[in-house]
Each structure stands twice: as structure tokens, then as C-alpha cells.
Amino acid sequence: MSESELYCQIRRERVANLPEERVRQDIIKKMITQLGFPAHSLVVEKALQQFPHLHSTPSIPHCRVDIACFAKSIHPEHDLFPLLIIECKAVPITPKVLEQVVGYNYYCEAPFIAVANQEETRLGLHDQKKYVYIDYLPTYEELLMSIIL
User: Fold this and answer.
1) Taking the CB of residue 53, how many other CB atoms lie within 10 A of it?
2) What is the rounded CA–CA span in Å between residue 81 and residue 105?
3) Please, are residues 146 and 113 in contact by the beta-carbon 8 Å criterion?
4) Span 129-145, pLDDT tens digits
5) pLDDT of the residue at 49
6) CB contact at 8 A, 102 and 131
7) Closest CA to 74 of 63, 82, 65
8) Which of 81, 96, 97, 109 is the right S-S partner for 75, CB 3.0 to 4.6 Å?
């Protein structure tokens, strides 16, 4: 593998070594090795139209979620449902970046959203019509334990 490429263990392929891709690969590595996210629960650059619970929904925008973590039995109607979606950026996290991931989650309806760059990660949870953010990504188990059906 050359310096112009990175290996993505989720996609099982080499990808271009670009600033945003480095952020993506760093957060994936941290999620798996430090935070207990099962690798098989993660998808990378997944189009909204490919999300299992959205496949028959009309008028889904043509956009891709950088990272999504799916979990079983967290939704009363869908066996597999997104627990967390993450938008990765090689630039500072701005209100526009937060709006982007909130917009994706309008369709995904994941209990948690996050944004990440090289310097920071912010986790958002919906609290009475707005998102409240914390400055870290909890473990997989902590996210699962916080969901009340």
C-alpha cells in the first residue's frame, strides 16, 4: 500500500489518503479499539437510499452518511436500525456542518448523531426539538444503555 492510500477495514479496500478520509479512518479505529463498537455494525459512506428502514421511502435525497452504526432491537418496527450517524470533516466544525448531519438524521432517525474532525468529536442527542451536544463519543454500550423504548 502506498502513502497515497489508506486501508479501510470496514469497506475492506484501499481508499485515497485524503484529509477527510484520515478523519474517517481515525474515528473508525477509535470506535472499534477503544469504544467497543462492533466492526460488523459499522458502514462507511452509505447512501441514505441503502438504509434498510428507508429503502421504500420516496424522495430520499441523494447523499451519503460518512459512518453509521446499526444496532438490533432498538426500534419497535425495524430489526436493524441506525444507532448513530457520524459526519467527518477535515475542516473546523461549524453550525453548517452540524446542520448537515441533522439534515441527514431527519431521514435516518438515529437516536444519536456526531461530527468529527482531527481535533474534536461532538455527539448530539435530540432533546425536545433541538440537539444537545457533548464533546466526546461514548462507548457503544453506553449509547445502547441510554436508549429507552
Assistant:
1) 17
2) 12
3) no
4) 889 999 999 999 999 99
5) 83
6) yes
7) 82
8) 81
CATH number at residue 31: 3.90.1570
Gap between the Cα atoms of 134 and 144, Å rounded: 17
The boundaries of the domain holding residue 49 are 5-145
DSSP class of residue 50 equals G
AA letter at 93? I
Output the pLDDT for position 87.
Answer: 97
Which three cell numbers, joined as nine digits, stand for 52?
A: 434498510
Mean pLDDT of 120-136: 91
Asked if 118 and 22 count as a contact pair (C-beta separation under 8 A), the reply is: yes
Q: Domains in the chain: how many in total?
A: 1
